[in-house]
Amino acid sequence: MMPEPTYSQLIAVGLGPGDPELVTMKGVRAIEAADLIFAPRSRADEASRALRIAQPWIDPQRQPVIPLTIPMHKDPAQAAAAYRHIADEIGSRLSARAAQHPQGVARGVYLLLGDPLLYGTFTTLRDELAARFPSLVVVIIPGVTSFAAAAAQVGLPLSSGDDRIAILPAPETMTELRDLLAQFETVILMKVGSKLPQIVATLAELRLLENAVYAEHIGMPEELIVRDIGSLRDYQAPYLSLLIVRRLRESQR
Question: pTM of this prediction?
Answer without folding.
Answer: 0.90
